[in-house]
Amino acid sequence: MKKTKTLDWLSILFALLILLVFPAVAYGDENDKEDHEATLAPYFVIEDADPKTDSFPLKETDVSTNINGIIAETYVTQTYANEGTNPINARYLFPASDNVSIHGMKMQIGDQIITAQIQKREEARETFETAKQEGKSASLLEQQRPNVFSMDVANIMPGDTVRIELHYTEMVISTEGIYQFVFPTVVGPRYASSASEEENPLADSDVRKESSDPWIASPYLEEGKTPPGKYNITVKLSTGVPITSLSSKSHEINVEKSGDSTATVTLSHPENYAGNRDFILDYQLTGEEISSGLILDSQEEENYFMLMVQPPERYISDQLLPREYIFVLDVSGSMYGYPLDTAKDLIRDLVSGLKETDRFNLLLFSNSSMRMAKESVPATPENVQKAIDLIDQESGGGGTELAAALRNAISIPIDQNFSRSIITITDGYISEEKEIFEIIHKNLNHTNFFSFGIGDSVNRYLVDGIAKAGQGESFVVTDSKDAANTAERFRTYIQAPLLTDIQVHFEGFDAYEIEPPILPTLFARRPIVLFGKWRGEQTGTIRITGRRGNQDYVPSTDTKNAQDFVQEIDVSSIKTSENSNALRYLWARKKVERLTDYGAQKTDSELTKEMVTSIGLKYSMMTPYTSFVAVTETIRNPEGESSDISQPSALPLHVSSLAVGGYTTGSEPGSWILLLGVILLAFILFFRNSKKHITKSFY
């Protein structure tokens, strides 16, 4: 009798564990699913078996980019088609570079072409929903993050083909003589922190809202699966300077040169390209970089300019302070496997290259964080080996509580005799970017921040933002082969900044609304770029000054002084362009970036919202508070019945299914593995006891 009760208890335990393993997001009713989507990390899609509904309406994406000098103009055409028998409303999540200015959208249905209108975000959403209810075809483009956008398309009728064209502008500038154009193709899954307001006192209401944004729970296909749609990418280069090398480390490409400074790049096998990794194009030019200088743009209402100055050669100072490095390594579920292996190679190279006069610490984080030592330790061979042994034990699992990890790193006692840098190494798959930037801004008085993005489709908004907010540099490592070279670049940057105290003086040239108004320390050898407006006569001089090394800088025209950096530009010698709109959009994007991105301002302030909204409406440009909407005049679905489809995305290349798939917010995959072990143990006990019971009964 006692054994029977034991068996019953084990059976009940087993049933309860089964219920825990399979989440409600997959098996609950529709209302339960909606409740979960507000708080869960992304989940695996369960494909609709209904043949009447087309679950993958996005059939093709065509990308056409023209790079003229350093300005890239891109047209992205998304083709939606309904191959089912039910009308559908589709949503698609897609990425872009975090510094693009989207300033045009068109929708084509059959022969009808509709130019989208820019509206306040709430108004655009209302316009779209009204059209949807009325049975009109409509499209809505919304910004979820500076590098994440959602496209909603309503009332796609059976047999319809709908084309949405987006037009945006961005800059391509060199770093250490290498130009890199990146076109992201997939939004990596975002971990939504489980920490409460009490646990995250720095998180304001806007930050907490981010964690519950519905787009964060967008569906993903299982690891290794890809959507059926096609992806085509074409890049046309016109540099004005002979191209010496052109390559892609992400894709096989075809290169067709029509001259020394012009080339057309296409994918070698577009039919095999599933849109699961960033397209990265690197190129170098003969001799000097694209020339430094001033570009003036004359418009009817306002005039714009772009100032680009090449930095000096790197200056190695013999007066560098000893440094303290705190490495913050992401070991969460999304880093499992290839990304974490790459990060381990990077960490080995970083810590192995430290000087014994330096100090360092290592902090590993997923759901929680763990320090190698309570305080930073000297970079002796013994301590370096201890750090390497520690990371070698990690395999990856759990959530991505980066905010808590950064607070832990910042709390490490400071030695004023050392210059501190915190280096974050992550894929960036979190939803609370603003909270991270807030933390960094509050600690700039004694620390600067560097970042390494690991993987083929990292969240560059976070990775770049950490560096921009933290007055440092960002790096992206796509595979282990890049690790050693990237680690060396980091050491060079951090030990020998090129310029500090950079200032721009406008003498006799009426410039105003300069963006950015304050220039950071320049670590990498990349151009200094400023945007602004100008009025009046095209006269005067622009002087750029800075400091090299650690000596006090005194403004001077003595360019022979090794500690001083001075460049001058005669404004009157510059030819004015009258047919380019690119500068106005680039200026507007830089203005919005300063007001809303990287934690520089409270984005939930009414004044900020008004300013950004005004810019978006004036320049017909996407912002956090403005959206594009297009609506047909005719009613195309008078019955009003339709199915809502959220098209699933592929997981980024090399990202494990541990990044998504039914883990509740804050869950630890390691805990789930433990839970499965308990289930297995229950099975063993059950069958062992059953065998004993049967044997006893038989005899």
Strand content: 25-35%
Mind telling me the CATH class of the domain at 50-284? Mainly Beta
Unreliable stretches: 15-41, 201-205, 551-562, 661-675, 691-699
Question: Roughly how many Å apart are the termini?
Answer: 17 Å
Helix content: 25-40%
Structural class: alpha+beta
Question: Treating each run of at least 4 consecutive H or I residues as one helix, how many helices?
Answer: 14
What fold name stands as the CATH topology of the domain at 50-284? Immunoglobulin-like
Please give the order of strands in the largest beta sheet: 5-4-9-2-1-12-15-14
Shape: globular
Q: What is the correct CATH architecture of the domain at 50-284? A: Sandwich
- On the 0 to 100 scale, the average pLDDT is 83
Rg over CA atoms: 28 Å
Main sheet attributes: strand count, strand direction, barrel closure: 8 strands, mixed
Q: What's the count of strands?
A: 33
